[in-house]
Amino acid sequence: MNASEIIARDIFTKSTDTEDFELSEIEEGDISDTFLFETYSDKYIVQISKENRNNLAVGAAAYMALEEDNKIPTPSVKDSRLFKTPYSITELLEGENMSHMTPEEDVARELSYQAGEYLAEIHNKFPRRKSGYIRPTPRLKPLRSRNWGDFFEERLFNKEAGDAFPETLISEAESYIEQNMSNLPENPDTTVLHNDYDPSNLLSDGENITGVLDFGSAIIGDPDYDFVKAKVNFDRDKTYCAEMLQKGYTSKKALGEDFGDKEEFYTVESSLRHLYALDFLNRNVRNIPDREIRKAEEYLEEVLYSSKALV
Q1: Residues 132, 148 contacting (CB under 8 angstroms)
Q2: In the prediction, which pLDDT does 121 show?
């Protein structure tokens, strides 16, 4: 029994006031270790953070806020702590990770539609405000407010892509973003964004979505950005349907009046950001298959050259 497992057992015992449980699964990660505990009636996920305390706490805070009206299937939070040994204990939702599924086309379209509805409900849940980009504290209160353009400055510039990606493509994408960033509204109406909404963070029973997970990257910003990023994720996945995602989203929430002016920019930025994320993982965490790297590269090239981006 390693040290992390001992800590997890102690945390679970104290939080649930029970010693009658089974520890049935352990997943060691780079940012946190995850444990599955089963009691006679329930199953719980215990996550113990290794370094990114804010992400773990932000995720738990978002779950608690969204749980109030039951419109969105998120896990209930049994317990969480930010300091000392940061951890969260949440219920285990039933369902299969959608990124592991290969449903029939009609089912995939229906799940995509539902995914759009739930993303719109997330954006509708929190009040909109004129405040630019805000990185939230663990309870989703403003930590700092910045020009919306600063968000992209922080995420993209002064980064280096590894040798796995063509320098010309990266340079052209960054140049496009830098040239067009000034066209974005400095302080758009903002709300809480999931910021990592894709099939890998959704659960399904094969007919309906049963879980919306992983709010650890949540920020406050332009909801149109969150929608476009999700649309890119669904389009790139190929199993699901970005068009149905949009139909589901707009059935619950209208896109911004200036959406058409922002969509291309957000699409290029999200595609480049995904490529950077793969590069980081490839160099620091695990080997990414060449086919996945090429797929990300080809997608960025497609959205950059097939649009008016470089015209």
Answers
A1: yes
A2: 94
Q: What is the reported pTM?
A: 0.88
- Here the tokens at position 74 are 């998120």
* Edge-first strand listing for the sheet containing 209-212: 96-97, 202-204, 209-212
Handedness of CA 205, 218, 158, 187 (dihedral sign): positive
Contact 19, 13 (CB under 8 A): yes
Q: Which domains does the chain have, with CATH numbers?
A: 3-91 (3.30.200.20), 96-305 (3.90.1200.10)
Is residue 244 within 8 Å of 109, Cβ to Cβ? yes
Non-local CB neighbours of 88 within 8 Å, separated by 6+ positions: 46, 47, 56, 57, 59, 60, 77, 79, 80, 81
Model confidence at 145, in pLDDT bands (50, 70, 90)? low
pLDDT > 60? residue 131: no
Tokens 């104290």 found at: 14
